[in-house]
Amino acid sequence: MTNGNHDGAGNGDSGQESVPSRQRRRFPGISSRAYEHPADRSALVALRKLTGFDTVFKALSGLLPERSLRLLFLSDSVRVSDAQFAHLNDMLRDACYILDLEKVPPMYVTQDPKPNAMCIGLDEPIIVVTTGLVELLDEEEMRAVVGHEVGHALSGHSVYRTILLFLTNLALKVAWIPLGNVAIMAIVTALREWFRKSELSADRAGLLVGQDLQASMRGLMKIAGGNHLHEMNVDAFLEQAEEYEAGGDLRDSVLKILNVLPRSHPFTTVRAAELKKWAATRDYQRVMDGHYPRRQEDKDTSVTDSFRQSASSYADNVRNSKDPLMKLVTDIAGGAGDLGGKLRGRFTGQGSGGSSDRSGEGGGDGTGSGNGNGNGSSSGPPDGSGGK
């Protein structure tokens, strides 16, 4: 580490490091591939393999508002340090130590009642958290958020988030140009889809830093419902994600797509469900046991393998989803008959119940679905599209 003032330093090669409050495992040399969502990972691997990619984006830095943003936060926000927001500074250094991020990025607290955080920057990432978020979360919940932002920095998401901010603003400025806005918004839409997956990656990084699933759940729940924890319940909150995915008919499925398209973040209940699901996987347990990909191996990562894993992940989501539209896609792919009847049933909400009529007219599709999985992240840009 370039910064040796980490409070977590202490136990040598034992794999367990002492950080405030309790013991947490450290992950020396961990690659961001260890926690990245497959769709996020495949895009990042491909971009890193592009010759001259970094040079091109650095050349864009003169066009992007990065320098202006840095000066803005420096002049009109509070920089976290040993002298200011010292508890956040400790969390930041701990998070960088646990994920083995060599250079601790600067962090700012900015006055804004809306709970939010972001990690931006082309040359060097900076982390910004709002006063609304600091006041909303307790220590362990905030630790997960700081870990989330450090995960963004380790993955290099800050570069693409800055590009997304720039293109979103540019789209507004060229809206009057025929087809100009359409072309840019197509790129913005694709970037938003990728970034929604990157938010899932960062949620996982936050869990690796905090190592407290319940704290991560509480934080997401508070972002959705405010500081009324005594009025909320994690299990009931997760049931909302299940109802959101499985409920309704094809009309609701289309509305879900339209609702999420303009957002840079997945919906909060969906994020919570996705994080809990990942925490129960063997992949998570292997990372916690010290078996994870190392950063030094990133250059040897196969783009083809990464895209294959991404495709497999999307296929699993479709196959296991309880969403009416996804179930219909599965039926079509499986060669199910009487699509006209199924479409009528799904659009009217009458296609999910069982039926003894083998013809399939208005009856159930007979297709067994696995456990539903929410497809859903926290560092939001100041575009109103998502918190944390």
Automatic annotation (TrEMBL):
This is M48 family metallopeptidase. The lineage of its organism: Bacteria, Bacillati, Actinomycetota, Actinomycetes, Kitasatosporales. Residues 339-354, 361-388 have a biased composition (Gly residues). Its cofactor is Zn(2+). Residues 88-278 form the Peptidase M48 domain. InterPro entries: HtpX_protease, Peptidase_M48. Keywords: Cell membrane, Hydrolase, Membrane, Metal-binding, Metalloprotease, Protease, Transmembrane, Transmembrane helix, Zinc. It comes from Streptomyces spectabilis. Pfam families: Peptidase_M48.
